[in-house]
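Hi support team,

I've been running sequence recovery on a batch of backbones for a student project. Most finish fine, but this one hangs at about 90% for roughly twenty minutes before it completes. I'm not sure whether the input is malformed or the queue is just slow. I've pasted the structure tokens below so you can try to reproduce it. Let me know if you need the job ID as well.

Thanks,
M.K.
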């Protein structure tokens, strides 16, 4: 394997090169089989109308597959829209929060929704419950709150939380962008569970999916009838109506829809969410076990119960240059292990999504050990 002083790909050392070197936290590894399936269907699918059954049938597969994967109870519905999670935060601000929301903020992404709501002139100032990066706070019941905004997995720091309803009347909206499909969840504990497909679902971005309870549907419809102005592209009532027709309000990326449908059906064929979560658990055991045994590395998240099984963050001591590690790994085809840029730590961030082979995670740890030794002895 190439060393920091000589980053050219080596002629040998296959035991240090994973079969697939994609470990990015989003966009994530897309399974080659899914790409081949898309190519095979391209002549009759790509470039066709999203209002016709050729595309609507794929949306139908997504809606049914996600409902089965997450074991959604009767009355829950799966909505789709364009724009990704950031767009859905805007839509929730217009179409779901009635007056005041509470947000758990413990990293970059869990804080973004709070900032969107705080800037909305038609809503009251949100209640923001914060904790330092590497930890997570708990929701606190508040009678003035009508939406509790939780995050299942903080992608920037590698912290996961167990989703529980506060002992309060507000509805629960969960950002599951990097969690859905990789972490277990009880759907009775949320009213909206939303995500984008470029993480566990191994597709491209630009789409949001929201699993909505009957209470969430009632809230969406009530706000739509209240006279509040909502841009049509951010109106969840419009998204609801379109989704019931197996469509999106405006033209979607057809390749993204297909890759998402293929990944959901692959997960179901392997054994469903329990299989996917167990596979992520296995990768996490390999990576965190290696970090705990390493003389120079340690898991960034101190509490084992809060360590994410889908996005792992590992700190290195001052004898190791993690940025140089990531650069050298990239030169050898092992990509996107850099930490989240705003966290500013001497660390690597490694995705452990279901499409990533646990054996490749084990090979990655051996490659890091090799490069650390070369770095420290140079």
């Amino acid at each position: 394997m190439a060393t920091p002083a000589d980053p050219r790909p080596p002629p040998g050392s296959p035991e240090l090169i994973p079969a697939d070197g994609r470990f990015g936290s989003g966009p994530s590894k897309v399974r080659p089989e899914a790409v081949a399936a898309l190519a095979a269907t391209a002549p009759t699918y790509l470039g066709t109308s999203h209002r016709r059954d050729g595309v609507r049938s794929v949306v139908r597969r997504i809606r049914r597959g996600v409902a089965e994967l997450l074991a959604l109870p009767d009355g829950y519905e799966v909505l789709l829209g364009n724009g990704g999670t950031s767009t859905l935060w805007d839509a929730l601000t217009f179409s779901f929060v009635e007056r005041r929301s509470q947000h758990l903020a413990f990293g970059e992404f869990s804080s973004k929704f709070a900032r969107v709501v705080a800037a909305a002139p038609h809503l009251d100032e949100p209640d923001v419950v914060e904790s330092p990066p590497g930890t997570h706070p708990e929701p606190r019941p508040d009678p003035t709150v009508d939406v509790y905004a939780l995050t299942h997995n903080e992608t920037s720091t590698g912290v996961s939380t167990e989703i529980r309803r506060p002992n309060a009347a507000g509805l629960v909206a969960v950002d599951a962008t990097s969690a859905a499909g990789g972490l277990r969840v009880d759907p009775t504990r949320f009213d909206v569970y939303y995500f984008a497909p470029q993480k566990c679902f191994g597709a491209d971005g630009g789409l949001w999916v929201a699993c909505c309870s009957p209470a969430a549907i009632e809230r969406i419809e009530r706000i739509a009838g209240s006279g509040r102005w909502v841009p049509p592209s951010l109106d969840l009532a419009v998204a609801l109506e379109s989704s019931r027709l197996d469509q999106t309000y405006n033209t979607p990326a057809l390749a993204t829809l297909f890759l998402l449908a293929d990944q959901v059906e692959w997960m179901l064929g392997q054994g469903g969410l329990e299989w996917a979560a167990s596979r992520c658990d296995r990768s996490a055991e390999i990576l965190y076990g290696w970090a705990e045994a390493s003389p120079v590395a340690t898991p960034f998240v101190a509490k084992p119960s809060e360590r994410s099984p889908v996005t792992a963050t590992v700190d290195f001591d001052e004898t190791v240059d993690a940025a140089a590690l990531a650069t050298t790994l990239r030169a050898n085809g092992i990509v996107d292990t850099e930490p989240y840029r705003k966290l500013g730590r001497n660390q690597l961030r490694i995705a452990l999504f279901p499409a990533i082979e646990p054996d490749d995670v084990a090979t990655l740890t051996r490659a890091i050990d090799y490069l650390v030794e070369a770095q420290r002895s140079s």
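--
Follow-up from support: It reproduced on our side and the slowdown came from queue contention, not your input. The longest helix spans residues 272-293. No action needed from you.
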